[in-house]
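Curious: can you check?
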Amino acid sequence: MDAVGLEEVQVSKEEVGAVVADDRPDVPKAVKDWPHEDLKLGQISGVSVNSAFQPVIFHRADRVFDQYTFNATSHFQHIDKGPITEATVLTLDPHTGKVLGRWGDNIFYMPHGLTIDRHENLWITDVAMHQGFKFKPGELEPTLVFGKKFQPGSDVNRLCMPTSFAIASTGEIFLADGYCNSRVLKYNALGKLLKVIPSKDEFLSLQIPHGITLIEPLDRVCIADRENMRVVCPRAGLYSLHGTKDPPLTIQEPDMGKVYDVSSKGTLIYAVNGPTSSLIPIEGLTIDPQTEKIIDRWSPPEGFGLPHAIAVCPNGSSLYVAEIHPNRIWKFELVAPK
């Protein structure tokens, strides 16, 4: 596996050019009248897609993340309300949007990120609890827990409002942490901390890493660096430490806006931004990290309100965008450019 991984990382410029030429960006086209009926959800903070190509969403029910949610020391202010009593994790039919299954009641306090790996494990972050969780398929008790419940902190054992997970095919875990700590933590498959990004000697500064995705052929972990209004892709170090000191790939343009989330397809990134200024539209972005350019911009005919999360289907046929205002989920088909 290591030899294969190294070969993937150390490609020539000609090979990279061929990959890009063969992987011209598919264009997202909004699917009309999807879902077929109003799902009556709270703020949809997370979305991912399972191996059956079914979107799975993570919503907040009657909870709202606002200026009263945390105090100045990042402690959650509504513990007394208890966990959300409504099911927060919903699996949808990809054709109709009908709810096929639901769980997650009486567990979470303020949902944020949701990622499904290739083994159907669910990786979830809860900003109120200051924790991240790994749930095996069909299980209601987590098999891995990161952080200490309701205890914000910046040491290696505590998190502060973590936002999102990305899971490598090697089993390595990347956790964006988050609103307060502005770092990414890399763990092995058993949850042992391997690295903090950025390291002390690394010329990189994050300001609310809000979403995260992996581009394994390039050995890059790409971060929605929200308040810095960019996407930044340092080396992931999945197959070798060779090149891990290389500078990050950085995509930042004057009208990019605050980037809320990222999801990869091949060597490309699909992203969504959020409210930034009246001069910057809220839209989807297609990004080529190798050229460090935005190569397409897109949105539904009605426009976005406040998109919060994005997920590309494993087979590359579609993507989903979750919004927290209005509280809705969009489906986009990925079609070849004309």
Notes: The helical segments are 2-9, 13-22. Residues 13-22 form the longest helix (10 residues). The domain at 2-335 is CATH 2.120.10.30 (Neuraminidase). The two ends are 38 Å apart (CA to CA).
